[in-house]
């Protein structure tokens, strides 16, 4: 029996997945059979009706039994109501009162937890019953029953029940739904709605297809809310809205009216309806035609989710359900009940009860995994990690990695390890060994953790060996990127040495070995390799690890590699490698010696003064353009030695400079004129020396050379009287541009005259201005009070008795004297001067202000 149940469950799953196989769209609902007690019941009996409460289920059978079940289908209570079929069960909202009607006309309404009970037997089958939703309240003790007529039962104040006929004469009442103050029911002619408050019937919605037998294709009713009724009959669905009528429209009409807001046709016959947010769940009875026999047969029922539109609908999902005995079922045998609170939908048939529920995030992830959409499944799990129950992010991630490996996407799989494995070192090591088994260690190497966590050294060494065997460049990259403490350095060093035995000149391996030596603080060996390779990092290595003691005998190698960087480094670290040591090491390489000493001289003209004599030869040999600047800036080089070298090499400019610096200006000028034949340079030299004899020599040398004369005429005017040159020019000598030169001389002379006159005017104006300023200053009064003293006798300048006559002298230097304290003026020099300032000529203290009283 258990095996049969398993087979049926699997067939149900297969059937509900049919649409899934046809489309990649994810189903909206998931299905499972209601088993346990339900299975036992339906093996001996058949389900006829069912109603659902949030707390429990109530199932009626063809043998007149009513079972209360929990949500797993376990039987909690059993009622023997009738020997014949139970037609309908109704519960109030509290779930404390239940109404039952059966095919033999029996009606029972009773409390599940109280002794309250109502019994009645009619002379015809009672098809429907509905208790007031608030039946638990004493003011709402009402229920309706329906057979050939619709009766409203109400308990009076003396606990007696009285009945009222709400409707009759249109055939059997086959469906009823009570919501709030509204009762909706269906008979053979259509659907009516009754307002229990106003005691008025407010609408009649006729059925569309009257060709269908109402007992075989019953009407399905469903309240979406207190004012929205959904009607399904045959293949037609109508959505009706109950609205309040405006007071001005009342007259003799009910206070409410019904408006059909949506109406459309479906493909199959409707067996049940239920709301799902703004959508509808529709249970459909399907008939199909056999291709072989061309006869109709009952197909599997369908559960569709549709989106209603004003005149049509849009199908959201559609599932075919393999329920037990579907081949023998009719449209009236299926029922759709639902639990509003949990969005659970119960498909009831005589031999089966199937529960449909909205798929949760776990189901969504199941579907994604089934479709091998691991990336989306992982993302969904991360977003909903607090709500998922059956799945773990890590398990999904590991499955994703395995899938990528199986698909040959090794690089993507390795990259995903970073996110999925995180800081779990054990999982990292497991995955690395898995990649090793498939020969893809290289793929995972860029993504291995290097800090938190740190794997076993063996893992990193295994990957390094893999690269060393097949990819030197990749091996070098890993050594550069990985910290040296991740692996056993000595093991890797030995492995590299073994490979260098086969290929001793491999630059990549040599460079990598140097880096390994550096990690191992074996800087000497690393430096030696860098120098051999002439690698740019050699200077950084020396600076970083202070290896100056190791390079004292390797200065030539460093200079050969990069003289600029080497010199800068040596000069920046003179305290570690002295200038003397560097010069000695470079003795056999004078060109490098010159580079070092030249940079030293540029930094400080005095530090290498002991080598300035040597530098003269070095500049002359390797860098003549900088020789003259060196001779000019150096105060320590021997001039005689420098002159000797310059004369030997016929360096005219340098010789001229040295001769002039040694005081032999005439020889220097002679060399300019005879060797360089450059009159402009000769004139410039004469201007610098500003020596009349040099100008005379220059004129004498130039007097028989017309070009020199032109040059002198153009430049001599401001230093020597041009007449001296002009008088010596021989008559008849042709001088180039003589007229222009004479005009220039005259213009220069006129310019000098104008400058002198302008300067004179400025001087006179300034003198007059200063004189006026001094006169104004001296005309100002001088304050004399009791605090002033005579600078000679040091007594107060003013007498204590103001009535006595007194006489004082105040100089413009502000020194004051009693007149009698000053010496008597000389007859030859009547002017008086301040004794303190000792003025001997007319100045600020020479003028006198005399005060008498």
From TrEMBL:
KW Transferase (keyword) present: no
Function per UniProt: Plays a role in vesicle-mediated protein trafficking to lysosomal compartments including the endocytic membrane transport pathways.
One Pfam assignment: Beta-prop_Vps41
CDD domains assigned to the protein according to its UniProt record, in alphabetical order: RING-H2_Vps41 (cd16690)
Protein name (database record): Vacuolar protein sorting-associated protein 41 homolog
GO molecular function, one term: zinc ion binding
Organism encoding this protein: Loxodonta africana (African elephant)
InterPro entries hit by this protein: Beta-prop_Vps41 (IPR057780), Clathrin_H-chain/VPS_repeat (IPR000547), TPR-like_helical_dom_sf (IPR011990), Vps41 (IPR016902), Vps41/Vps8 (IPR045111), WD40/YVTN_repeat-like_dom_sf (IPR015943), WD40_repeat_dom_sf (IPR036322), Znf_RING (IPR001841)
Annotated stretches, region: Disordered: 1-32
GO cellular component: AP-3 adaptor complex; clathrin complex; clathrin-coated vesicle; cytosol; early endosome membrane; Golgi apparatus; late endosome membrane; lysosomal HOPS complex
Subcellular locations according to the entry: Cytoplasm, Cytosol; Early endosome membrane; Endosome membrane; Late endosome membrane
């Amino acid at each position: 029996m258990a095996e049969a149940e398993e087979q049926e469950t699997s067939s149900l799953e297969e059937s509900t997945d049919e649409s899934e196989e046809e489309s990649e769209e994810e189903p909206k609902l998931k299905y499972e059979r209601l088993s346990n007690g339900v299975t036992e019941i339906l093996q001996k009996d058949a389900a006829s009706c069912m109603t659902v409460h949030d707390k429990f289920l109530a199932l009626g059978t063809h043998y007149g039994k009513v079972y209360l079940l929990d949500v797993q289908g376990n039987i909690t209570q059993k009622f023997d109501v009738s020997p014949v079929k139970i037609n309908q069960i109704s519960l109030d909202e509290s779930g404390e009162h239940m109404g039952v009607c059966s095919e033999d006309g029996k009606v029972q309404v009773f409390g599940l937890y109280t002794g309250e009970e109502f019994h009645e037997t009619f002379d015809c089958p009672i098809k429907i019953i509905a208790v007031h939703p608030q039946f638990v309240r004493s003011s709402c003790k009402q229920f309706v029953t329906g057979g050939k007529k619709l009766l409203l039962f109400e308990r009076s104040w003396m606990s007696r029940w009285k009945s009222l006929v709400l409707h009759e004469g249109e055939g059997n009442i086959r469906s009823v739904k009570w919501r709030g103050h509204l009762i909706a029911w269906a008979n053979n002619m259509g659907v009516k709605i009754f307002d229990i408050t106003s005691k008025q019937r407010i609408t009649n919605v006729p059925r569309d297809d009257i060709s269908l037998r109402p007992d075989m294709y019953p009407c399905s009713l469903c309240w979406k809310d207190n004012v929205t009724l959904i009607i399904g009959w045959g293949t037609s669905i109508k959505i009706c809205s109950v609205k309040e009528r405006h007071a001005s429209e009342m007259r003799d009409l009910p206070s409410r009216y019904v408006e059909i807001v949506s109406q459309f046709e479906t493909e199959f016959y409707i067996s049940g309806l239920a709301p799902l947010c703004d959508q509808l769940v529709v249970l459909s009875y399907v008939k199909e035609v056999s291709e072989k026999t061309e006869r109709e047969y009952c197909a599997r029922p369908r559960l569709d989710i549709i989106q209603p539109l004003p005149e049509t609908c849009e199908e959201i999902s559609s599932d075919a359900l393999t329920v037990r005995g579907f081949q023998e079922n009719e449209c009236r045998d299926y029922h759709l009940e639902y639990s509003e609170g949990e969005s659970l939908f119960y498909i009831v048939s005589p031999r089966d009860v199937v529960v449909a529920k909205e798929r949760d995030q776990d189901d969504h992830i199941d579907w994604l995994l089934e479709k091998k959409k691991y990336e989306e499944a992982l993302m969904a799990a991360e977003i909903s990690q607090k709500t998922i129950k059956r799945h773990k992010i890590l398990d999904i991630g590991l499955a994703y990695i395995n899938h990528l490996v199986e698909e040959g996407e090794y690089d993507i799989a390795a990259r995903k390890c970073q996110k999925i494995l995180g800081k779990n070192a054990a999982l990292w090591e497991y995955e690395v060994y898995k990649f090793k088994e498939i020969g893809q260690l290289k793929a995972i190497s860029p993504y291995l953790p290097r800090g938190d966590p740190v794997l076993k050294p063996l893992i990193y060494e295994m990957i390094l060996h893999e690269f060393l065997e097949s990819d030197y460049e990749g091996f070098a990259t890993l050594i550069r990127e990985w910290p040296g403490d991740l692996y056993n350095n000595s093991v890797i060093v030995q492995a590299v040495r073994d490979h260098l035995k086969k290929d001793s000149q491999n630059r990549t391996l040599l460079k990598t070995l140097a880096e390994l030596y550096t990690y191992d603080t074996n800087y000497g060996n690393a430096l030696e390799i860098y120098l051999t390779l002439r690698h740019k990092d050699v200077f950084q290595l020396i600076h970083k690890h202070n290896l100056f003691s190791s390079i004292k005998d390797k200065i030539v190698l460093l200079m050969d590699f990069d003289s600029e960087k080497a010199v800068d480094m040596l000069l920046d670290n003179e305290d570690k490698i002295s200038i003397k040591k560097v010069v000695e090491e470079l003795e056999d390489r004078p060109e490098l010696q010159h580079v070092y000493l030249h940079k030293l001289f540029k930094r400080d003209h005095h530090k290498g003064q002991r080598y300035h004599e040597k530098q003269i030869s070095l500049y002359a040999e390797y860098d003549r353009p900088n020789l003259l600047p060196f001779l000019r800036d150096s105060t320590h080089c021997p001039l005689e030695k420098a002159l000797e070298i310059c004369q030997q090499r016929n360096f005219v400019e340098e010789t001229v400079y040295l001769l002039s610096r040694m005081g032999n200006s005439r020889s220097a000028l002679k060399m300019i004129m005879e060797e360089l034949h450059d009159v402009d340079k000769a004139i410039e030299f004469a201007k610098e020396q500003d020596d009349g004899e040099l100008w005379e020599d220059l004129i004498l040398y130039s007097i028989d050379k017309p070009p020199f004369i032109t040059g002198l005429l153009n430049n001599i005017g401001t230093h020597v009287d041009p007449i001296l040159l002009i008088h010596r020019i021989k008559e008849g000598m042709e001088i180039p541009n003589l007229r222009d030169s004479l005009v220039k001389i005259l213009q220069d002379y006129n310019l000098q005259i104008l400058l002198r006159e302008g300067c004179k005017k400025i001087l006179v104006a300034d003198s007059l201005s200063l004189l006026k300023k001094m006169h104004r200053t001296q005309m100002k009064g001088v304050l004399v009070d009791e605090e002033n003293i005579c600078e000679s006798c040091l007594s107060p300048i003013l007498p204590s008795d103001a009535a006595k006559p007194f006489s004082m002298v105040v100089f413009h230097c502000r020194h004051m004297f009693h007149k009698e304290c000053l010496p008597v003026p000389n007859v030859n020099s009547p002017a008086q001067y301040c004794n303190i300032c000792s003025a001997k000529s007319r100045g600020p203290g020479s003028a006198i202000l005399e005060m008498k009283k």
